[in-house]
Specification:
7-stranded mixed sheet; globular; 4-stranded antiparallel sheet; single chain
Length: 128
């Protein structure tokens, strides 16, 4: 079973940057669509971004558009989420998810229920 592992979270000051990584042990992610999600205490899980298996299609939630960038490195079997100009409201547990069938498109929003495999998440705290 595909198991995803996130890394790169931590404490950062407002306006700062972090790069999250999502990888899989023993699985080649080349054919998987990857999504990034976050969940803050007391709030619903929010879909942030997705990237197609080729990397040619991406999508972003309005809340992060222009600040976050998703990318993938097939050679390293890793998907990244570069987060810039972080705000206190970005504080949450960030998780990556994968699905073979999901179509990453700007036509529809990124829904957690469409993804079948999940990582455990990494905490991002934005605070001065």
């Amino acid at each position: 079973q595909l198991q995803l592992v996130e890394s790169g979270g931590g404490l950062v000051q407002p306006g700062g940057s972090l790069r999250l990584s999502c990888t899989a042990s023993g699985f080649n992610l080349d054919h998987w669509v990857i999504g990034w999600f976050r969940q803050a205490p007391g709030k619903e899980r929010e879909g942030l971004s997705c990237i197609s298996s080729s990397g040619g299609n991406t999508n972003y939630a309005d809340s992060v558009k222009g600040r976050f960038t998703i990318s993938r490195d097939h050679a390293k079997n890793t998907v990244y989420l570069e987060m810039n100009n972080l705000k206190p409201e970005d504080t949450a547990v960030y998780s990556c998810a994968a699905d073979i069938m999901y179509q990453c498109s700007s036509v529809w929003r990124i829904e957690a229920r469409k993804f079948g495999s999940w990582g455990q998440g990494t905490q991002v705290t934005v605070s001065s």
